[in-house]
Amino acid sequence: MRNEVPASAQMMQFVMGSWVSQAVGAGARLGIADHVAAGAKTAEDVAQRVGASPDAVFRLMRALASLGLFTVSGRDFSLTALGETLRADVPGSMRDFAIAETDHPHWQGWGLFPKAIKEGRKVVVDAIGMDGWEYYAKHPEDGEQFSRSMWGLSGQATGPVLASFDFSAALKIVDVGGAHGALLLGILDKYRQASGVLFDLPHVIEGSKREVERAGLAGRVEVVGGDFFKEVPAGGDIYLLKHILHDWDDAKCLVILETVKKAMKPTSKALVVECALPEDATPSPAHLLDLSMFVLLDGRERTPTQYGALFEKAGLRLSRFIATPGPIGIAEAVVAH
C-alpha cells in the first residue's frame, strides 16, 4: 500500500509555495535555462556567465533540480522539459510570466493579502502607492516585461482556442486589448482569408508593431492605439477579448462590453477568452487567479453563468460557452435582438 503524504507535510508544501515562486522567478531573471540549453553546465559555469555568486547559484539550481527543472550528474546540471519552459523565445515559454508574477507590484501586493480579505478591496495601492497600471506606465521596462508575460499567456491560450472555435467565416477580427497580439497572429496564421485589427493603449502598441512585423503579417494587421472604455474599431466579424474582463469589476466590464457592442455589426460575435471559474469548487487555476485579480486589481474571474449575466446587462446574449482543453473557456456573445 502506498504511503499517503501526511496532512502536515502537504500544508508545509502549500506554505512554501511562495518560496518556489521566488526561486523560479530568480532563475528566470538570470536566464539560467538559456545558459544550460546548449548542454550540461556546472553552477560555477553558469555563475560566471550571469555574474552571480557560484555558491548561491549552485544552491538555487539544486533547489530547482529538486522541483524537476534540471537533472544533476555530479556537478553538472542539464535542462529537463519542464526547465525548457523557462527559456526565452521558445514555444510554451513561461519565463516572462515567472518574472512578471514575482515583480514589485505583484509581490508587494500579495504581502498585504490578509488586509485585502479583511477590507474586501485591492491593496496594491497601499503596498506601492499606486495601482498596477499606473506603476507599469511609470516603469516602462517593467511594463514591457508584463506585456511580454501576457504574450506568453496568450500563447498558452492560442492552441486551445484554435482547436475549439472555427474562424473560417470571419473576414475581419478585432483583438481588443490584445497587447502584442499572440492570439490574433495565431488565428491569422491558420485562417488566411481574414485580416485583423490589433487594438490597445498607445504605449503598448509600439511593441505590438514589432511582433506583427516579425510574424510576417504586417500586410494583414492594422495596429491601432486607443482606449477600450471609449471606443473600439468598428465593423469586425469577431471581437476578441482575451484576459480583459477579469481585470475589472462588473461596472467597468459593462462599459467595455457596451463599447464593443456599439462597434459590432448585427452579425458580429464577441469572444471572451478567460480562465473561467467552474460553477463549483472543482480544482482549477482559475480559483487562485481570481485571488490575484482581487489583490492587484478590481477584477475577478467569473463563471459562465456570471458572464451570461454581464452580457445581458450590456445588451448582448451568451450564445454558448465553449470549454477548451485546459482551463481556458470561450464565452461567445452576440447582439441581443
Produce the secondary structure layout:
Layout: H1 7-15, H2 17-30, H3 32-36, E1 41-42, H4 43-50, H5 54-66, E2 70-73, E3 76-79, H6 81-84, H7 95-100, H8 104-110, H9 113-119, H10 124-128, H11 132-138, H12 140-164, E4 172-176, H13 182-190, E5 195-200, H14 202-214, E6 221-225, E7 238-242, H15 250-263, E8 269-274, H16 285-296, H17 304-313, E9 316-323, E10 329-335
Parallel strand pairs: 4-5, 4-7, 5-6, 7-8
Antiparallel strand pairs: 1-3, 2-3, 8-10, 9-10
Kindly list the characteristics that best describe this protein.
337 residues; alpha/beta; Arc Repressor Mutant, subunit A; Rossmann fold; 2 domains; seven-stranded mixed β-sheet; three-stranded antiparallel β-sheet; 17 helices; 10 strands; globular
For the record, give the distance between the C-alpha atoms at the N and C termini, rounded to a whole number: 61 Å
Morphology: globular
Shape-level CATH architecture of the largest domain: 3-Layer(aba) Sandwich
* Radius of gyration from the alpha-carbon trace, in angstroms: 21 Å
**Total domain modules:** 2
Helix count, DSSP H or I runs of 4 or more residues: 17
Q: Please, could you describe this protein's structure?
A:
With 337 residues, the chain is of the alpha/beta class. It has two domains: 7-88, Arc Repressor Mutant, subunit A (Orthogonal Bundle), CATH 1.10.10.10; 156-335, Vaccinia Virus protein VP39 (Rossmann fold). It is built from 17 helices and ten strands. The protein has helices at 7-15, 17-30, 32-36, 43-50, 54-66, 81-84, 95-100, 104-110, 113-119, 124-128, 132-138, 140-164, 182-190, 202-214, 250-263, 285-296, 304-313; strands at 41-42, 70-73, 76-79, 172-176, 195-200, 221-225, 238-242, 269-274, 316-323, 329-335. The strands form two sheets. Strands 6-5-4-7-8-10-9 form a seven-stranded mixed sheet, sandwiched between helices. A three-stranded antiparallel sheet has the order 1-3-2. Strand 9 and strand 10 (329-335) form a beta hairpin. Helix 2 (17-30) packs across helix 5 (54-66) and helix 4 (43-50) crosses helix 5.
